[in-house]
Design goal:
The protein has 249 residues and is α/β, with parallel strands linked by helices. It is built from 9 helices and 9 strands. Strands 2-1-6-5-7 form a 5-stranded parallel β-sheet, with helices on both faces. Strands 3-4 form a two-stranded antiparallel ribbon. Helix 4 packs across helix 6 and helix 8 crosses helix 9. The protein starts with a strand and ends with a helix. One of its GO terms (cellular component) is cytosol.
Length: 249
Amino acid sequence: MMKCDIITLFPGMVAPALHESILKRAQERRFLEIGVHRLRDYATDKHQTTDDVPYGGGPGMVLKPEPIFAVVEKIHREQGETRIIMPSPQGKRFDQKMASAFSKEERRLVFICGHYEGIDARVKEGMPVEEVSIGDYILTGGELAALVMIDAAARLIPGVLGEPASLEEESFASSLLEYPQYTRPVEFRGLRVPDILLSGNHKSIRTWRKQQALLNTLRKRPDLLADASLTEDEKEWVDRQCDTVKSHS
């Protein structure tokens, strides 16, 4: 079971996502456990103060270290070993490889969600915190980033998705983007499903899908091809497509 904790000022931001779709089913089937901790409950004063003005001046507020240390230490004391993650644009880039590692992590994954101008630096100095980024942009807080990471990891746990083959064919699972998908009707507003998918020839369909995945990756994320495991025939096919793409650019 993958076990997570989300430390947040705003539990209402994460609750809806945790009770829908894959995350809901994963928890119900005991593949995933998620605890949500309201940071204000761990404040040390009667006003439940969790932030204060920054030393040295400047705009905004900074989250205080005391409540964060208190909740993390409580989780560690009651639940055992933890791996502490802080969503941050300064962190290591989150990717499918990291999602896979999270899905297999035996320690509890504790996500500290920042807000305002940030978190007192002593949190990172005093605890083994890993900063992880989901992209080069700024969000209001760390809650959405934490949910992204939990969702990406949870779906990799065996049994969470109904069909294991779904994982194998998704984008990034094989260092390639996914091939295009179609369903009924056969024709919609003059656009038809490719005939090969209606042929019933499963070998030809597999070949077409692999070529489409390669072509999709070549056009959108050619950098991924360096890590893709390709046969010699597939490499030659990609080289021919490269020449075609260049001739039309």
